[in-house]
Design goal:
single chain, alpha+beta, five-stranded antiparallel β-sheet, 26% helix
Length: 190
């Protein structure tokens, strides 16, 4: 009897995976948004502030919502760690960071944070999803760190004048990607 139940569960998992693999990227994102709304109905966020990507391997499909700007307010305890991104596993309907034990607190902008971010965007300009953008609020400035595989930029934006000063800008050689791939490595679905 146990073998029959195990066999049915494996068949169901294979069927779900086949159904997911047959869908386009945008359809998978819509499914993830539906799961998120169903499991976290009180969560109100602007998905224009996130980059949406879909990843898959032979066993799972993940939809990742990566926050373009990671803002750390002045009053934040240095020991506190925020989760800024959301990952929805379409096979299990698990949502990280909400369904994962010992995960850090998910960052939700306050009205003061929204006001500060509006000021920063107005005076600094557009933030690209090609970079990890971290903004740390200090007493007099916003320290803006922008990094990716190729470059690094650190800037200071004065909170009163709105003037931007570049502190550091550099370029790096990207890390070579491995040629041999494991079938369980996640690959982005375009």
């Amino acid at each position: 009897m146990l073998n029959i139940i195990t066999c049915l569960a494996q068949s169901s998992k294979k069927y779900i995976m086949e159904q997911l693999k047959s869908k386009q990227k945008q359809e998978l994102i819509v499914i993830a948004l539906h799961i998120l709304k169903e499991k976290q109905p009180s969560l109100v966020i602007n998905f224009e502030d996130f980059e949406s990507t879909v990843w898959g391997n032979s066993k799972e499909i993940l939809v990742k919502f990566r926050r373009i700007i990671r803002y750390i307010p002045l009053s934040t305890n240095p020991e506190k760690r925020f989760s800024y991104d959301i990952t929805v596993n379409l096979n299990t309907n698990e949502i990280s960071p909400f369904d994962v034990w010992f995960q850090s607190e998910f960052y939700i902008e306050t009205k003061a944070d929204q006001k500060a971010l509006a000021f920063i965007k107005k005076n600094f300009g557009v933030f690209s999803s090609d970079f990890e953008n971290i903004i740390q609020e200090d007493e007099e400035d916003y320290c803006i760190h922008q990094t990716n595989s190729y470059s690094l930029g650190i800037y200071r934006l004065n909170k009163k004048t709105g003037k931007v000063e570049m502190s550091l800008n550099g370029h790096m050689e990207p890390t070579p990607k491995p040629i041999i791939q494991n079938p369980d490595d996640f690959i982005e679905i375009k």
